[in-house]
Task: structure prediction
Amino acid sequence: MLNVLRQKFRTWLFRPHIASGTVTLNQRRIFILPTRQGLFFAFVLLLMLIGDINYNLSLGYALTFLLSTLAILTMLHAFRNMVQLEIRAGHPAPVFAGEFAHFVFHFHNSAKLPRYHLVLQHSNKHSVLFDLAARQSTEIKLPLPAVQRGWLSSGRLTLYTEFPLGLFHAWSYLQFDTRCLVYPQPAAPLPLPLRAAQDGTGTLNTAGDEDFSGLRSYVAGDALPRIAWKALAREQGLQVKQFSTPQGRQLWLDWASLAHLAYESRLQVLARWVLDAEAQGLQYGLRLPGIELPPNQGTHHRNECLRALALS
Amino acid sequence: MTEAHSSRSHSPAPVLIYGLLACILLVSAPHALHLPVWVSMLVVLVLGWRAWLTYRGAALPPYWLLLTLTLISIGSLWISFHTLFGREVGVTLLTVLTALKMLELRATRDATIVIYLVCFIILTQFFYSQSIALALLMLATLVLILSTWLHLQTAPLSLRARLRIAVLLLAQAIPLTLILFVLFPRVQGPLWGLPQDAYASSGLGNTMSPGSISKLSLSEAVAFRVSFTGPAPLHEQMYWRGPVLWDFDGRTWTTGKALQAKRAQLDQLSNATNYTVTLEPHNKNWLFTLEMPTQLSIPAALSSDFQVLQQQPVTARLRYDAHSQLSYRANVEEETQQLRRALALPARLNPRTQQLAAEWRAKLGSDDAVLRAALNYFTRENFQYTLEPPPLGVHTVDDFLFETRQGFCEHYASSFVFLMRAAGIPARVVTGYQGAEYNDLGNYYIVRQSDAHAWAEIWLTERGWIRIDPTAAISPARVQSGLAAALPDSLALPFLARTQSPWLLKLRFNLDALTNQWNQWVLGYNPERQFAFLTRLGMEAITWQKMALSMTAISASLIGLLALLLIRRASSRPTDAAQRLYHKFCRQLEKQGIVRNPHEGPQDFAARVVQILPHLAATIMDITADYVALRYELSAQANTLQGLRRKVNAFRI
Result:
């Protein structure tokens, strides 16, 4: 009974405030408890006090009281180190499953007071440590492993500090509605289903007869052979060679054609094909149960396809 | 400034190690004065070793080596002290183990333990001294400790920045510390029996042999301080009575075994004086009062030979009010048993003195005449008052009276009492202090160990015990103006005991006045003093509950106040003038229930407000435009701000 009540109390006390905009930390959001070192220090102080009484050490009393007062004040300082911090979640870029999703949080310190040793921690122990100077903003990237395709929520994060002396642990729970799109992990390299490619003449289309049509900037997932190394050597940045595909050559990446594979594997293979088709500059379309993305080309189309795969 | 957050168990940064080493070194430095030399050397070696390892980036010694080193250290302490319990050995052990811990400091979190140990070492310093200088040194050390401690939480900060935070933290802590110090209900220790070495003892003992008092007179240490309620007595009347010595073995006088005697009796009293003594702890159970004491503010017994004795040795600074009568008649009806004791002499020692006394008695007859002859003998025979008398043989009194004729007060008192006893006059030696030094800054008198003195008392019929100071016969200056006046300049007296230039004297009195205040208010703040002080502050019917309650209440309000002040600094206030004005404008709207959403930009907000308050559209758009221009456009005119201010101030809904 008591346990249930306690659990209920905890749930109520630490109830998540799922925030969408800017969160400003206030006294209702900040919790403070002594750390293990803090409790041990209290024990040390008790020993000192006994010594003072026993030996009538007046200066010992003074020292003990000074240290106790310091310890109590560090509680205020720990609180102050966090209060009035403004936090806003940024939009994380989509990633493939198996990679790290970099959640972005904008911390703003509008006070004249520097903040020290803040730790933003996810429940899975991934954490980032940072300081924040007075009247400064900073962008904190918290890498979280993206295991599953779909939406990855940042979940309940803890922002804590043990400044200044590590005697008190002040923390606040942060839960934003920010989420990161996780594409399916592309399957191992696998030939494109070119047999299914249709053109007007019914002949197979090979990579050899594409015409170079120009350069575009690199997008994650582009195939290495397509990178314009010469352009890179000319310090024009990472660029990818684009080849124009004659009109009418269309590649359909079809869910139905992979019936022999398991559900997730089908998505992974399709993801691989989307990447390869885009890299090879093909016009490709995607057919999923209930969704059909007509053949097209380009980063936007690629992302649309991957998004459909992530969420199907 | 961000970094990937690795676990705190990583190896400690060199800066942290150097900080900790400096803390240990500073905190244990005053211990070098009383710890065995090998311990100080060991500590310095171990700390130096660790500094060298850190400097070279070398690995720490293996565990087996550390264990061996620790066991050897403990073994050596055992050999040195013959015990591992007690204050002295405890302090040594703490210091050595803290130093050794540094050799084993592999993870940052271990640093906390070292810091706690260092705080404890500060406390142990106060066993030996609680002087102002040490307090200041330890306060400075605390700043260093705090800044090192801060390193654990703010690694990237420079030492300077950490020192700044440390000083700030300390400054914020001091008011509350004072409250706790004054109001924390004091308990008179000890809570349990203390080891024998708990207290230092200095000052007069309960024996006197040639050299014991002259050795003491080289000490500048304060024995006690006195403030008189009325006019102070003359210097030559200030005989502070201490142990009374009865038994003589030819060299050493001792108090002997106290006899079952009846109470001390005083009559024909006059010349009263009232004063307050603050006695430094001397670990003996006697108190000092002017001859002869009649009343005392604390419980103590007056023995039949007029010693004021407490049950327990004085182990803490003690303050008492006393009332003395400078003219008196003491124990006129002395018991025969006591008188017989006051005539006892060691047989076969000092034959020449015995013979001289017998001659005087035969020739002169009366006690008075013998007394006068003895005092005349001292003045006539060219005796010298000196701190460096030649050594004496087996017949100490004979050698002194007939051969060397150079001595300090113990020689005179001893030989005079011997003479009296040999002549059949009951006599005894009284030790104590004579004189005092006036500190006009604090309006009190200081009695130092260098004022230690010995004199004689003889018992005459109808007159009881009378004080005779043979030293006064040889060197009247000693009794009238103090030791410095009585001794030739060439003698090695402590620097401060000499009369110096006026400014040096003034400095000395200033320092002592400060020390006296420190002793009275900081070190002597015991349950009684606390009670008196709180009563003076207006607290009535003081109980410990009341003190605890007011302490909690005041502390809580002080913490609350500090919290307010601290958190005010953390709260975000727009710094920019334009922003402040715009906030004021928004507050005006808030009063009407129009609240700007956090995500709403000024333009969007203005659009929404205009829909609600169409009649103010022009003003609202105007204010918003000015604000946006000031905030986001570099080309904003200086006069736009004044315009905005005027418009916001004029804005009414």
Summary: Chain B has three domains: 14-152, 207-489, 577-650. Chain B is about 50% helix and 15% strand. The first strand of chain B starts at residue 2 and ends at 4. Residues 544-570 of chain B form the longest helix (27 residues).
